Amino acid sequence: MTIFDENLILETINMIKLHNFDIRTVTLTISLRDCLSEDINVVCDKIKYKLDKHAANLVNYANEIENDYSIPIVNKRIAVTPISLIGESCREKDYVKIARTLDESAENLGIDFIGGYSALVEKGFTTGDIALIESIPEALSVTNRLCSSVNVGSSKAGINMDAVLKMAKTIKKSAELTSDKDGLGAAKLVVFCNSVSDNPFMAGAYCGYGEPECALNIGVSGPGVVRAAVLDLDKNADLGELSNKIKQTAYKITGTGELIGRRLAKKLNIPFGVVDLSLAPTPAIGDSVAQIFQAMGLEHAGAHGTTAALAMLNDAVKKGGIMASSYVGGLSGAFIPVSEDAGMIEAATLGHLTFDKLEAMTSVCSVGLDMIAIPGDTSDSTIAGMIADEMAIGMINKKTTAVRIIPAPNKTVGDKVFFGGLLGGAPIMKVNSLSSENFVKRGGRIPAPIHSLNN
Q1: What CATH number does residue 349 fall under?
Q2: 146 and 227 share one domain
Q3: What's the alpha-carbon Rg for the chain, to the nearest Å?
């Protein structure tokens, strides 16, 4: 006879009902490398066929799993081979046409977001890379579900500063072409150093070179669960006990995520990829990474000690997750997006959280400068300087870093942007007024650090 642990059952119910635990995303990675052709119409037809073939049942099966286990699956997503590679085979380099095809297919399939409108240019450009990057602003302005990413640096190759400046201009134009939506285009565009090919989270998801034909990756999120666990501890518990509590909680969350992922992958008859345990917040009260800091004992996110608290949180989450699964991957750790986290929004609005403090925190978080709204008149060179700084943190520390900045058109410090849904809204943050222009316009490539020579 099976013996049920009533406390464990109640704990799981409370994680879902009271603390916003969810499967943030199920992301189907699909290789499009067999969709190449000189004829762009053939490429688009092949892409549509491939997506229909592999993703036709994704939403229905995910909904069935959600009902079976009563665990919310918030988003259903697709990530494809970097489109710079696919479009490069065409005589006519009409990347926007491919973007529309991806977006229309996603809409027909009921998919929330589709990622992979991407290029990897850390060491230089091909003609396809340049064509794709130049098409990004228009592509994001004429689509609803498409997400884009460009990797401009790595610990092995260094930082492509020509790409950094080009991406700064691309971000500005993407925001300007979606000015009626507070620059939403820039919110679906991310610049990476050391991007990972099995990341299920947007806007940076794509199906990398070493990935299989098709696989299912899971993105699990539970900042509310971790916060509740921390608050449940004795107030005098030391930081070692606190870390252990977070690890234990991350273990439970990861195990649940892998269970859901494997069941869904089996129904789809495809391989299970990874479970990405990332404390990805939402604008909902109680579903905030910043509020975990407060539960730890900080008055607010941004106080001295915030970076240390984030470092411990990120490490404990990874240690707990890796004990629960041999297939933890993606970006696993803690995200600190300003617009998507109620506590971060509050801290930024009150002036407790500055741009410089956010940059310091990115040295120990999962990703980087994420969903930060800045004045719309911020210069290209200043944005390029922001990107360069963040890429340098990733390059030197051999970690993934990213920049998702929104230069909000016609808005300045004191104003706010509103995107809705998981993207939330945020105050416009002040940026450094000193010029970076002469530095970033030197171009070329910042060489890789000495520790890159480790083969």
Answers
A1: 3.20.70.20
A2: no
A3: 21
Q: Is the pLDDT of residue 3 over 50?
A: no
The sign of the dihedral angle between the CA atoms of 124, 128, 130, 133 is: negative
Going by C-alpha positions, the residue among 35, 178, 45 that lies closest to residue 116 is 35
Looking at the DSSP bridge assignments, the partners of residue 158 are 154
Which domain does 407 fall in, by range?
A: 222-237+277-444
Nearest alpha-carbon partner for 401 in 191, 208, 217: 191
Structural domain includes residue 213: no
- At 17, the pLDDT band (50, 70, 90 cuts) reads low
Query: pLDDT digit string (tens) for 188-200?
Result: 999 999 999 999 9
- DSSP-assigned beta bridge partners for residue 17: none
User: Does residue 227 share a domain with residue 143?
Assistant: no
Q: Which residues, at least 6 apart from 42, have a Cβ–Cβ distance to it below 8 Å? A: none
Beta strand segments in 280-421, E: 333-334, 369-375, 401-408, 416-420
Candidate from 83-92, 185-194, 201-210, 323-332 with smallest mean pLDDT:
323-332
Whole-angstrom distance, CA of residue 280 vs CA of residue 316: 15
Answer yes or no: are the C-beta atoms of 225 and 249 closer than 8 Å. yes
Indicate whether 268 belongs to any domain: no
Q: Would 27 be classed as within a structural domain?
A: yes
262 in a structural domain: no
Q: What is the three-state SS of 380-414?
A: HHHHHHHHHHHHHHHHHHCCCEEEEEEEECCCCEC
Beta-bridge partners for 220? 23, 277
Determine what percent of the chain is predicted with pLDDT higher than 70. 96
